[in-house]
């Protein structure tokens, strides 16, 4: 390369840089930084709060990751806030819990002029583009399962790593001499699932407890039931079955009862408060469940969406992670918990 060519290229580069700087100062340049979503580069748009016009009828939505009974409790929280504030929050549930279904809901809400939505993200790494597209037009927050790399404003729900540690501590108590466990979930790709498993693994480290199987069911009810059945056959010396999602508890209880290994032969430690799980605790089939606070998911998400749309940035909490906490339920407190849960749903 000649000296003249080098000088010309240098001048051209400096001119381009100066032009970009000038446009940026004039407000005409977008931020070109990118985030990876597993599909390629996605423009990283600055997180922004969108305020609705004064007097506008708000359109808000609460989007779940499937249609399990767990979400009926969250819907009760949504309904409570609707009654208090006089707003409408549409609860949308993907029937079979697929990413395609949830993305379809996101697209519908984005094109229908909604002011805000709260979503339990099924695949955080793969849905960044869809979430960011929605966030460019409305206020987007997450609940239950986060997408921290996206442009969502706030996460409301369980600190899933700490929740996993809580269940991990219970597993260690139940297996003081160690043992073999199997773990079940819809998909480990979900942020809540991967974080719960990470927390469990942290607590059982060095305790002579081995995970012999990790099974996904992809939210297929038949597969969710087959998985624990298959593990009991494939690993006759398994000591405990662990469920990470709400519907895994009842499936695990059913499998253990069918195997005639209830009690000390095969124990169970799970998440959430489906009726089948609480029945399993009362029968002694399940020893412990760590419950979240889905009612708070629905109530707090609805409240925040309403306030963001009407008050703007001043409605943002100081911490973008709002931990709603967990509770450990076992045979000692399951009756009281069920009574409180019944009252909450009313």
Structure class: alpha/beta
User: Any idea of the CATH class of the largest domain?
Assistant: Alpha Beta
Shape: elongated
CATH topology of the largest domain: Rossmann fold
The parts where pLDDT drops under 50 for at least 5 residues are 1-44
Count all strands and give the number.
14
Strand content: 15-25%
For the report, how would you describe the main beta sheet? Answer: 6 strands, parallel
First-to-last CA distance? 79 Å
Q: Tell me the number of helical segments per DSSP (H or I, 4 or more residues long).
A: 11
* Overall pLDDT metric: 88
- Strand/helix succession: HEEEHEHEHEEHEHEHEHEHEHEEH
The CATH superfamily of the largest domain is Response regulator
Write down the Rg.
Answer: 24 Å
Major sheet strand order: 4-3-5-6-7-13
The helical percent reads: 40-55%
Q: If classified by CATH, what would the architecture of the largest domain be?
A: 3-Layer(aba) Sandwich
What is the count of distinct domains? Answer: 2
């Amino acid at each position: 390369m000649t000296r003249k060519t080098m000088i010309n290229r240098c001048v051209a580069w400096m001119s381009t840089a100066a032009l970009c700087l000038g446009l940026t100062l004039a407000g005409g340049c977008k931020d070109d930084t990118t985030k990876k979503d597993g599909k390629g580069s996605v423009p990283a748009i600055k997180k922004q709060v969108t305020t609705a016009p004064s007097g506008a009828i708000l359109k808000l939505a609460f989007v779940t990751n499937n249609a399990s009974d767990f979400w009926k409790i969250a819907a009760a929280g949504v309904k409570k806030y609707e009654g208090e504030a006089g707003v409408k929050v549409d609860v949308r549930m993907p029937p079979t819990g697929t990413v395609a279904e949830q993305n379809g809901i996101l697209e519908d809400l984005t094109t229908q002029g909604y002011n805000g939505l709260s979503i339990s993200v099924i695949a955080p790494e793969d849905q960044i583009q869809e979430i960011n597209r929605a966030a460019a037009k409305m206020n987007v927050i997450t609940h239950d399962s986060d997408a921290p790399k996206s442009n969502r404003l706030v996460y409301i729900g369980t600190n899933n790593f700490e929740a996993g540690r809580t269940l991990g501590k219970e597993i260690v108590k139940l297996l003081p001499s160690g043992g073999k466990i199997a773990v079940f979930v819809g998909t480990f790709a979900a942020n809540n699932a991967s974080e719960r498993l990470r927390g469990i693994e942290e607590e059982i480290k060095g305790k002579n407890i081995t995970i012999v199987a990790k099974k996904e069911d992809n939210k297929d009810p038949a597969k969710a039931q087959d998985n624990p059945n298959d593990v009991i056959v494939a690993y006759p010396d398994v000591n405990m079955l662990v469920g990470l999602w709400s519907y895994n508890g009842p499936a695990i209880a059913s499998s253990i009862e069918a195997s005639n290994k209830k009690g000390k032969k095969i124990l169970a430690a799970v998440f959430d408060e489906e009726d089948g799980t609480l029945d399993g605790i009362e029968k002694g089939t399940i020893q412990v469940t760590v419950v979240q606070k889905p009612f708070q998911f629905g109530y707090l998400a609805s409240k925040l969406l309403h306030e963001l749309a009407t008050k703007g940035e001043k409605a943002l909490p100081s911490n973008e992670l709002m931990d709603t906490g967990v509770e450990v339920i076992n045979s000692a407190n399951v009756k009281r918990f069920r009574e409180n849960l019944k009252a909450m749903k009313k």
